[in-house]
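Quick one, probably user error.
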C-alpha cells in the first residue's frame, strides 16, 4: 500500500466517475495542486486499479451504471488496507438517506454536485492530512506495542483501583500464565506475595500522591503459588483520552541476582572464617582457642544463636565441650561432658561421619529423647558437623538457632575441614 503523504500536497489519488469530462476537470485541478491522478470509469475498473496501484485517496462518484458509488465504496473498504484509505464520495443527492448510505459504505466524507472546486481541494487536503496523522499514530502504536511485547521485563498497566488493564506476554509468562488475557481485570495484589501486598499498595499510593516513580523489591506469585524475588518500578500518568489516572508497573525477576548476592555473602563468610582460623593458627593457639574462633565466626556469619565445639574421648563414649560462643541467655555448656549413649545426634556423627541436620526439632524423630532439653534451651533448629582428622571423627561442632532455619548443603561445607592439628 502507498506510504502516507506529507503535509505538502502530494500523493496518488484515484478518481472514479463515468463522466469523462468530470474526470478530466478533476485531474486538471488536482494535478495543479501537485497530486498524481489515476482514473477509473466504473466501479469494477476502480477495484482493479486500487489493487494494482493502491492510492492515498479515492474520489468516487455516487451515481454510476452497473456498480454504484456506494457499493464500490463498500467493496474498496473490504480490500486489504482499504479501511485505512480515505474515500470522498461525490453525489448529486443531498438527502439524509444518501448521506447515511455514504458513511455506512465506509466513506470518509462527501461533497455535493455541482462540484465547488475550491471546496474539493480543501476537502482533499484535509482528508490526506488527517489520514497521514492517523497512519503515523497507528505506526507509533505498533512500534510501542512491539517494544512492550518484546521487552524482557513484565509490563502491566493498572487503573486507579489497581486492577490490570493490560499486560505484555512477558508478564503473563513470569506469573505462569499462557496468555496475557488471563490477567486482565484482576487486582494486581493477587500477583503479590501476601507479606508484601501492603508495601506495594503503599508504594502505589505514594506514586499517586507524589507524582514520582517508585521502585521496590518484593516477592511476586506464580499461578502455581510459588513465589520469586522481583524488582518492581511503578510510575503514574494521566490517560489523555479520558483523563483517568493509571499506573505502569514494570517487574523484573531478580532471582538470579539474589542468588548471586547470597553466593557472594557466603563466600565472604567463608573467607572471613578462614582468615580468622589462619590468624588463630598463626598465633600458635591450642585447638581449643582455634575452635573458639570458629564458634564465634560461625554464629555471626550464619546468624545463629549458639555454637559449641567438643572433642571425643579416645573411646568415643563421651564428648567434652571445649569451646563455645553464646548470644542467648542461659547456662554455659563449656567443659560439660556429654554421654554419647544419650545423644542420638552424636551417635549419628560417629556412625555416618556426615552432618546431622534438624531444621525443626519439633518434627525430627531422631531427637525425641533430647527434645525437652533443647526446648528448654530455646533451640528451634540444630546442625551438628563432624570434626575430622585424617578421616576420623574426633569431635563435633554444634550450631543452634532460636528460630526456624533451613540449612542448605553448602552451610555444612566445613564438615570436611578440621582446625585440629
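Nope, works fine. Designed sequence:
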Amino acid at each position: 500500500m502507498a506510504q502516507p503523504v506529507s503535509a505538502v500536497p502530494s500523493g496518488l489519488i484515484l478518481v472514479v466517475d463515468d463522466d469523462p469530462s468530470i474526470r478530466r476537470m478533476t485531474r486538471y485541478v488536482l494535478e495543479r495542486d501537485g497530486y498524481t491522478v489515476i482514473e477509473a470509469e466504473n466501479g469494477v475498473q476502480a477495484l482493479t486499479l486500487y489493487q494494482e496501484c493502491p492510492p492515498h485517496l479515492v474520489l468516487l462518484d455516487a451515481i454510476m451504471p452497473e456498480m454504484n458509488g456506494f457499493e464500490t465504496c463498500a467493496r474498496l473498504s473490504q480490500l486489504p488496507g482499504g479501511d485505512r484509505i480515505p474515500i470522498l464520495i461525490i453525489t448529486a443527492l443531498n438527502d439524509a438517506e444518501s448521506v447515511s448510505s455514504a458513511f455506512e459504505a465506509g466513506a470518509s466524507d462527501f461533497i455535493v454536485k455541482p462540484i465547488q472546486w475550491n471546496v474539493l481541494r480543501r476537502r482533499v487536503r484535509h482528508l490526506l492530512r488527517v489520514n497521514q496523522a492517523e497512519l503515523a499514530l497507528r505506526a507509533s502504536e505498533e512500534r510501542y506495542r512491539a517494544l512492550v511485547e518484546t521487552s524482557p521485563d513484565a509490563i502491566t498497566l493498572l487503573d486507579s483501583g489497581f486492577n490490570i488493564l493490560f499486560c505484555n506476554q512477558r508478564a503473563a509468562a513470569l506469573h505462569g500464565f499462557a496468555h496475557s488475557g488471563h490477567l486482565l481485570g484482576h487486582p494486581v495484589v493477587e500477583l503479590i506475595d501476601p507479606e508484601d501486598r501492603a508495601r506495594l499498595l503503599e508504594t502505589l499510593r505514594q506514586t499517586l500522591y507524589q507524582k514520582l516513580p517508585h521502585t521496590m523489591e518484593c516477592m511476586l506469585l506464580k499461578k502455581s503459588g510459588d513465589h520469586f524475588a522481583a524488582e518492581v518500578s511503578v510510575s503514574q500518568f494521566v490517560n489523555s483520552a479520558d483523563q483517568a489516572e493509571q499506573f505502569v508497573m514494570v517487574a523484573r525477576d531478580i532471582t538470579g541476582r539474589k542468588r548471586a548476592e547470597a553466593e557472594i555473602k557466603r563466600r565472604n563468610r567463608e573467607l572471613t572464617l578462614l582468615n580468622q582460623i589462619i590468624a588463630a593458627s598463626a598465633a600458635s593457639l591450642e585447638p581449643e582457642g582455634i575452635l573458639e574462633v570458629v564458634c564465634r565466626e560461625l554464629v555471626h556469619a550464619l546468624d545463629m544463636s549458639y555454637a559449641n565445639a567438643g572433642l571425643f574421648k579416645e573411646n568415643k563414649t563421651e564428648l567434652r565441650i571445649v569451646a563455645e560462643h553464646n548470644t542467648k541467655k542461659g547456662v554455659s555448656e563449656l567443659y560439660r561432658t556429654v554421654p554419647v549413649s544419650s545423644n542420638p545426634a552424636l551417635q549419628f556423627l560417629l556412625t555416618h561421619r556426615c552432618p546431622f541436620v534438624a531444621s525443626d526439632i519439633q518434627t525430627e524423630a531422631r531427637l525425641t529423647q533430647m527434645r525437652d532439653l533443647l526446648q528448654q534451651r530455646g533451640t528451634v533448629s540444630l546442625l551438628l558437623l563432624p570434626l575430622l582428622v585424617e578421616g576420623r571423627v574426633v569431635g563435633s561442632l554444634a550450631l543452634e538457632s532460636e528460630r526456624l532455619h533451613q540449612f542448605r548443603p553448602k552451610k555444612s561445607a566445613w564438615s570436611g575441614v578440621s582446625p585440629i592439628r
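The longest strand covers residues 227-238.
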